[in-house]
Amino acid sequence: MIDLAPLPQGRPRRLVYLGTPAMAVPPLDALVDAGFEVTLVVTRIDKRRGRGSDTAPSPVKVAAQRLGIAVSHRVDDVIDAGTDLGVVVAFGQLIKAPVLTAAPLVNLHFSLLPRWRGAAPVERALLAGDTTTGVCLMRLEEGLDTGPLLDVTEVPIGPRETADELRRSLVSVGCERLVACLSAGLGPARPQVGEPTYAHKLDPAEFRIDWSRSNVEIDRVVRLGVAWTTFRGKRLKVNVGRPSDGSGPVGTYLRPFEIAAGSGTYVIERVQPEGKSAMDVGAWANGAQPRLGEAFGADTADNAEPAHA
Q1: Is 68 exposed, middle or buried (0-12, 13-18, 19+ CB in 10 A)?
Q2: 191 Cβ partners below 8 Å, 6+ apart?
Q3: Hey, which of 36, 219, 228, 254 would disulfide with 31, CB 3.0 to 4.6 Å?
Q4: pLDDT (tens digit, 9 = 90+) per residue, 136-189?
Q5: Exposed/middle/buried for 39, CB within 10 Å: 0-12, 13-18, 19+?
Q6: DSSP of 191-239
Q7: Residues 140 and 180: beta-carbon distance below 8 Å
Q8: Would you say 211 and 227 are in contact if contact means Cβ atoms under 8 Å apart?
Q9: How many CB atoms lie within 10 A of CB 199?
Q10: How far apart are CA 227 and CA 250, in angstroms?
């Protein structure tokens, strides 16, 4: 175990901020609005956009430029930043020992640690059917989200809440707690207690709807906002839907706009056909004319009878 740089006593004045995606922008804005001096932002390098040579900056880099804050893509620049504290939010990289020993760092993490350590805590909580998650402010150390906790706040997960909605709730709570904790001065940290679980990065294959699963499990995938199935050999993204009662051969179109699951049925409400914009399912069905008994999730269409709305 390395010797971590000591946390500042009292309210830190000068901060370095490490973050990358859009959900890391509101905490940066909140710190600046609260009067903290953010002298440096560290984020990922600009990503190549499409097939051309153009690159796109991370959302946090765009925010830093808007705020007039210097930006670096090198984590080691934290060492010489001359700040009181580093704040890490969804940075996406492990920070190595030389930085941790030179500068005190805290991490705002969106789960109730030690549950859902890792890259996709919001999505894993939804997929697991958790009814509660939360926001933790922890001391950053070498392990993956293993550091002692400085602050813990629970956040309920609504039964129909989407990943985007939950993410907004967590970020809102996180901004409030981050500013409050830093303004009051960081107190003693306590070790994490409980059995760790890991929020591994999502595999795109997990976004494909498995119609043999229960309608509740299918709904959790749809609520991630990236669920898809196939219809007549083409992808059909399912943006919105809901579980319902009923039964039938798994994956078949029972009635408008209801598909049989392994347990119960699932009503699709908004879809996005391959190569087209998102639309209400009624508009899609007017063109596609799905037939009763026709299969979803198969590579080819089955023999079926026309559906009557």
Answers
A1: exposed
A2: 148, 149
A3: 36
A4: 999 999 999 999 999 999 999 999 999 999 999 999 999 999 999 999 999 999
A5: middle
A6: ---S---EEPPPPGGGGB--TTSBHHHHHHHHTTT--EEEETTEEEEEE
A7: no
A8: no
A9: 23
A10: 17
CA 247 vs CA 210, 254, 290: distances in Å: 16, 8, 18
Mean pLDDT of the chain: 94
* pLDDT digit string, tens, across residues 268-285: 999 999 999 999 999 999
Q: What is the secondary structure of the chain as a DSSP string?
A: ---PPPPPSS---EEEEEE-SGGGHHHHHHHHHTT-EEEEEE-PPPEE-TTSS-EE--HHHHHHHHHT-EEES-GGGGTTS--SEEEEES--SPPPHHHHHHS-EEEEESS-TTTTEES-HHHHHHHTT-SEEEEEEEE--SSTT-SPEEEEEEEE--TT--HHHHHHHHHHHHHHHHHHHHHH-----B---S---EEPPPPGGGGB--TTSBHHHHHHHHTTT--EEEETTEEEEEEEEEEE----STTBEEETTEEE-SBSEEEEEEEEETTS--EEHHHHHHHH--EET-BBSSSSPPP-EEP--
Q: Measure the CA–CA gap between 135 and 153, rounded to whole angstroms.
A: 5
Residues 190 and 113: their CA atoms lie apart, in Å, by 12
Beta bridge partners of 259: 253, 266
